[in-house]
Amino acid sequence: MSSRRSPSSYDESDVRVRPGRGSRPRSKIRPAHRNALSGMVIAVDRGRYTCVTDGDAHIVVAMSARELGRGAVVVGDRVSLVGDVSGQEGSLARIVRVHPRASVLRRTADDDDPVERVVVANADRMVIVTAVTDPEPRPRLIDRCLVAAYDAEMTPLLCITKADLGDPAPLIDAYEPLNTPMIVTELGNVGAANPGLPDPLRRLRETLHGQSSVLVGHSGVGKSTLVNALVPGSDRATGTVNLVTGRGRHTSTSAVALRLPEGGWVIDTPGIRSFGLAHVDPDTLIHAFGDLASETDECPRGCTHGYGAPECALDVAVAAGRLVPERVESFRRLLASRERQAGD
Question: What is the pTM of this model?
Answer without folding.
Answer: 0.79
